[in-house]
């Protein structure tokens, strides 16, 4: 048992919650998720983390009693993180979307809520655009979606140096690679946003310095049909809304499940 598995087992044991590892393969690359919740429910919530991250970005939600009673819940490891081809990044958002669509075939459900934080936001939206069957809604939390305003940090050029990256952990290198290629990846899916037909919830904080609010909010307003877009912006919480405002996110998820 490796360190990640020990952590997972310890966390759910302490919470008194049953869980399952779910493994599939897509194009010979492993895809992993953690499953909790009510196997008899016809609703499924799928959480997709940002960069860096793993399934445990949403661990609080996976052990929440109310959510577990109402739905099946999975939180995935995206390519390059955790149990999904660790250390090997995937810059193509559509490829990641197709891999997760394939992964969802392991579950029996009629209604799907896709929740994506940061980098997970465009993946969730792209999944709904290219395969809308059974998708009930897309919930994007502080998503990084605008290719024209993708933020460049002062240390980006330093992180491009092979010598620097040699000393970084594998998951950090994956995150760096995703950051450096994200604008290009977003540009390639720019045409799909208008194809989304299901409700899209976009939450953002005005003080988000990682995914600047203005550019990403303007993108949603321009490219997502206003009839399906529910946009909420507020001060505080920065980029880490799922960690810093758990009750607000839980409340919204329960409302979505009850609709």
Mind explaining what this structure looks like?
The protein has 11 helices and 8 strands. It has 259 residues and is an alpha/beta fold. The chain has a single domain, classed as 3-Layer(aba) Sandwich (Rossmann fold). Helix 5 links the parallel strand 5 (111-117) and strand 6. Helix 4 crosses helix 5 (120-130). It is globular, with a radius of gyration of 17 Å. The model has no long low-confidence stretch (mean pLDDT 92).
- Enumerate the strands of the largest sheet in spatial order, edge to edge or round the barrel: 1-2-4-3-5-6-7-8
The sequence of SSEs as H and E is HEEEHHEHEHEHHHEHEHH
CATH superfamily: Alpha/Beta hydrolase fold, catalytic domain
Sheet bearing the most strands, described?
8 strands, mixed
Please state the CA-atom Rg, rounded to the nearest Å: 17 Å
Instruction: Return the CATH class.
Output: Alpha Beta
How many domains in all?
A: 1
| Record field, number of beta strands | 8
- Beta-strand residue fraction: 15-25%
User: What name is given to the CATH topology?
Assistant: Rossmann fold
| Shape annotation | globular
Helix and strand topology:
Layout: H1 3-15, E1 20-26, E2 29-37, E3 43-48, H2 59-62, H3 65-70, E4 72-77, H4 93-103, E5 111-117, H5 120-130, E6 135-141, H6 156-159, H7 162-166, H8 170-188, E7 200-205, H9 213-223, E8 229-234, H10 241-244, H11 246-258
Parallel strand pairs: 3-4, 3-5, 5-6, 6-7, 7-8
Antiparallel strand pairs: 1-2, 2-4
Helix pairs in contact: 4-5
């Amino acid at each position: 048992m490796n360190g990640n598995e020990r952590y997972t087992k310890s966390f759910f044991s302490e919470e008194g919650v049953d869980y399952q590892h779910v493994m599939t393969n897509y194009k010979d690359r492993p895809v992993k998720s953690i499953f909790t919740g009510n196997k008899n429910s016809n609703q499924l919530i799928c959480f997709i983390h940002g960069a860096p991250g793993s399934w445990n970005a949403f661990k609080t939600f996976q052990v929440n009693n109310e959510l577990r009673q109402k739905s099946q819940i999975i939180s995935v490891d995206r390519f390059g993180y955790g149990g999904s081809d660790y250390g090997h990044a995937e810059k193509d958002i559509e490829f990641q979307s197709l891999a997760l669509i394939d992964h969802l075939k392991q579950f029996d459900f009629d209604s799907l809520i896709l929740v994506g934080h940061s980098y997970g936001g465009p993946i969730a939206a792209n999944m709904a655009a290219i395969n809308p069957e059974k998708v009930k809604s897309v919930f994007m939390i502080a998503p990084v979606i605008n290719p024209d305003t993708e933020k460049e940090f002062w240390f980006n050029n330093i992180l491009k140096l092979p010598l620097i990256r040699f000393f970084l952990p594998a998951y950090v290198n994956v995150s760096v690679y995703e950051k450096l290629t994200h604008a290009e990846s977003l540009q390639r899916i720019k045409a799909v946003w208008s194809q989304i037909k299901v409700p899209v919830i976009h939450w953002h904080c005005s003080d988000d310095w990682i995914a600047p609010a203005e550019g990403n909010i303007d993108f949603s307003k321009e490219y997502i049909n206003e009839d399906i877009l529910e946009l909420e912006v507020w001060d505080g919480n920065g980029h880490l809304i799922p960690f810093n405002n758990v009750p607000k996110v839980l409340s919204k998820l329960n409302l979505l499940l009850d609709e």
